[in-house]
Sequence to fold (235 residues):
Amino acid sequence: MRRQVLALPGLLCDGLVWETQVTALSGIADVTVADLSGGDDLTGMAEVALASVDGRLDVFGHSMGGRVAFEIWRQAPERVASIVVLDTGTHPVGPAEPASRKRMLDLAANEGMEALADAWLPQMVHPDRRSDAAFMRPLREMVLRATPEQHVRQIEALLRRREATSLLGTITVPTLVVVGRHDEWSPVDQHERIAASIPGARLVVIEDAGHMVTLEQPAAVSTLLVDWLSKLPDC
Fold:
């Protein structure tokens, strides 16, 4: 029986972040990559994602998409067969976050998405990759496919997010928590707390990777996800 995967990208991201995994999973699953570009709150993003595919789902979320995955569990747990979150968080907005987000919004508004990409992307990857032009080019092109309006909407969604930490203990489906060892944005200890709060969750740390783990270590992540899905009970 083929599985149905709903893959959720993060802030300013699109199907590129799941490209290798979609191919790797094609033998055992049909993968739908949700379009979260139009949403200005996580609740609405979850609703749109759920409406994009029928049936019971293995919900995969990267970064902001991980937060949407937890929102999907909040809204429709009966549709969730398993959850995989990568390089994400559940904490509420912290005191310094609005100002930090505003700096990025102002940069994009005043100097353009190119300037935003150049300032934001390096901190999203392992330090050794920041000067690798061949690796960084597709990420930069992905950010430039996004519009300033999308950026504003998604930042507003993140700043209006509901706290999700208290939701973790209610999760009753198999859950995999993945993080890049060198993720400076969503660090390993944050994921240790997430995994410890979900009954039976498994934590996997991917070596030699930062926040963009699906792109930095595509083979390792793909192998992990294929193995994960292959061992799950039928929906």
